[in-house]
Design a protein that fits this description.
7-stranded parallel beta sheet, 7 strands, 8 helices, Rossmann fold, alpha/beta
């Protein structure tokens, strides 16, 4: 167990289920107090809080729609009111859809950019103002940004933007010893991943990995925990492809 995040405070967006939930539990297991951010499912978020409290660390659920800047500001304000500091930000929240470019509506385009890009950008803005010296920002992209998959154009456009935001912020926040990295999972077995896919499509994507299977949420959470720790203090501005060797 890594102990270097004991006593730290972590905000995890989209932490009520899937990868976000696994990250929340992993960081809590390593001693961090956790803010479980959620958009709409308060019940699921409170379940995660209850699981964390069983581990003997503090947690709180905070509703905030990260596509709205006032909600993001409130997320940080409430975190600071409760814990007095922020050490770690994990920008996990995101949405996806897969359509040929000829079928993508302006509304769909605006929504995916509002959550995946605007949300990441303005949570990072708050982190830049409030996160403690030596803190960590961990953003989420996707290995699909280099895979040229038809119907993924809008989704990968958002994730490409997140990768570039990460690179710039790593240099911009380096003077405060804040490490900023991005994780790019491959196909990972979550509700979001399975949405809109046939069993055949899911199996085909699983077989593209060197290990011939879908990723597990715990495999992603383990890497987040490493990047959040002191052991990763010399890693910044990097895109870590946690994807089982997908190609």
């Amino acid at each position: 167990m890594m102990t270097s995040i004991a006593g730290k405070v972590a905000i995890i967006t989209g932490a009520s289920r899937g990868i976000g939930r696994a990250i929340a539990l992993k960081l809590a297991g390593n001693g961090a107090s956790v803010v479980v951010n959620y958009a709409g499912n308060a019940g699921k978020a409170q379940e995660v809080v209850a699981e964390i409290e069983k581990l003997g660390v503090e947690a709180i659920a905070i509703q905030a729609d990260i596509s709205k800047v006032p909600d993001i500001q409130r997320l940080f304000e409430q975190t600071l009111e409760r814990f007095g500091k922020v050490d770690i930000l994990v920008n996990n929240a995101g949405i996806a859809f897969y359509k040929p470019i000829t079928q993508v509506t302006e509304e769909e385009f605006d929504k995916i950019f509002a959550i995946n890009v605007k949300g990441t950008y303005f949570t990072c803005q708050q982190a830049a103002q409030h996160i403690a010296e030596g803190g960590r920002i961990i953003n989420f992209s996707s290995s699909t940004t280099v895979m040229m998959l038809p119907t993924y154009s809008a989704y990968v456009a958002t994730k490409g933007a997140v990768e570039q935001i990460t690179r710039v912020l790593a240099k911009e926040l380096g003077a405060k010893a804040i490490a900023v990295n991005v994780i790019s999972p491959g196909p990972t077995d979550t509700e979001l991943f399975r949405e809109g896919k046939t069993p055949e499509q899911i199996d085909r994507l699983a077989q593209m990995a060197a290990f011939g299977k879908l990723g597990d949420v715990q495999e992603i959470a383990d890497v987040v925990a490493f990047l959040a720790s002191d052991e990763a203090r010399w890693i910044t501005g990097q895109n870590i492809r946690v994807n089982g060797g997908i190609a």
